[in-house]
Amino acid sequence: MLVDFTVKNFRSFKQERTFSMEASSIAEHKTSVKTLGRYKVLPLAVLYGANSSGKSNLIKALGCMNRMVYNSVKLNETDFLPYSPFALDESSEKQPTFFEIQFIKGEALYRYGFEYNTKEIISEWLYEKRFGEKEYNLFIRSHDYIEVSRTRFAEGIGKDKLTNSNRLFLSLVAQLKGEKSIMIMDWFGYLNVLSGLDGEGYAGFTLGMFYKGLEGVEEATAFFKKLQLGFNRFEVRKSVFPKEVLEKAPTEFKDRVKEGKVVDTLTSHSVFDDSGQVIGEKMFDEDEMESEGTKKVIEMSGPIFDTLREGKILVVDELDAKLHPLLTRNIVLLFMNPETNKHNAQLVFATHDTNLLDLKLIRRDQIWFAEKNACDSTDIYSLVEFKDEKGNTVRNDRSIGRDYITGRYGAIPFIGRTS
């Protein structure tokens, strides 16, 4: 499970800022909190902020770190790294970007991070803290010098000379079959970062899930029924083309048809007689019949139920785009309910939907805000950390949604401000 993520000097993040999924000591919704060893971890967090406040950049930072870990072994020595420093001062472009992530895998807390610029990995580190033990470093890197723990990370011994200046040591050791490094790389494979505005990254996964009848289809179908979206079931079929059409089609298209990659997406609707009794059903093309919101729910169902079944971490920017507030609320409930979230899955998303600012639904430490300071650098803070001008924290009987709209917690646009 994700415990926290720290970023510095990336896009709108100038100073070091940490986003945490570790539960505070507050009492609400205790049954939703996941306990692993002595750690108490949240299954969900929601990020609010005005447009251009930097909430999307936090998600981009997570995605950037994840891609760097996975793509590092593919780099040539002269390839540039995805360096995008804070651009609104005179010094940041000369400083490295900093990423660090803490997560629980098995019975240990791992802390992994690195600093880099456009040409090289400047530093890299990996620490392990077994439950009930103190934290030990597995390796520490400074430029080309890498110090490896002989007792706790023997798989990394002698690999330092094989590491190019722009490649991550962790990824290299994993490529060379290091057992612990592969395990950590596998965790990064459980971290999925998506855009709720563009279904290209996940719609294909969902179609494949339904077409092949993979695990998750039954749960998704029951979820659709509960939401009363207007159709009885969702079906994916292999497209059928007349012989004369296929004979004239390009070879690549014929291959796609043969492999089942050209499909029809259909929804079934009840057919009624004049007295309102159901007398049958009719199948419709999903794109033609269903609303954009319904299509979004269907497309998102693949990664949502895969995350729940496998105990993964799903991070989505603008999850609520095209969705009715009740649909978003029901997605939140899937992760908050221990009965539907049995495998320590986590959901993190950015939204403008103030209907979710409801302490009957989520906890104060699950609500995060992003806001720019006077130098246009992003700050992030949770509701449980917020204190008003008198130093008072937010009580759990406040009307959070109303307070947010009136600007009590910051992180909202000042429409019409002239100075």
Topology:
Layout: E1 2-8, E2 17-20, E3 34-36, E4 39-41, E5 44-48, H1 55-71, E6 97-105, E7 108-116, E8 121-130, E9 136-142, E10 145-148, H2 169-175, H3 179-189, E11 191-195, H4 203-212, H5 217-227, E12 233-238, H6 243-248, H7 251-258, E13 263-272, E14 278-285, H8 286-289, H9 292-310, E15 313-317, H10 325-336, E16 346-350, E17 367-372, E18 378-382, H11 400-405
Parallel strand pairs: 5-16, 5-17, 11-15, 15-16
Antiparallel strand pairs: 1-2, 1-6, 3-4, 6-7, 7-8, 8-9, 9-10, 12-13, 13-14, 17-18
Structural write-up:
The chain is built from 11 helices and 18 strands. The protein is α+β, with helices and mostly antiparallel strands and 419 residues long. The chain folds into 2 domains: 2-190 and 312-405, Rossmann fold (3-Layer(aba) Sandwich), CATH 3.40.50; 199-299, no CATH class. A 7-stranded antiparallel sheet has the order 2-1-6-7-8-9-10, with helices on one face. It has a 6-stranded mixed sheet with strand order 11-15-16-5-17-18, with helices on both faces. Strand 17 and strand 18 form a beta hairpin. Helix 2 packs across helix 3 and helix 4 packs across helix 9.
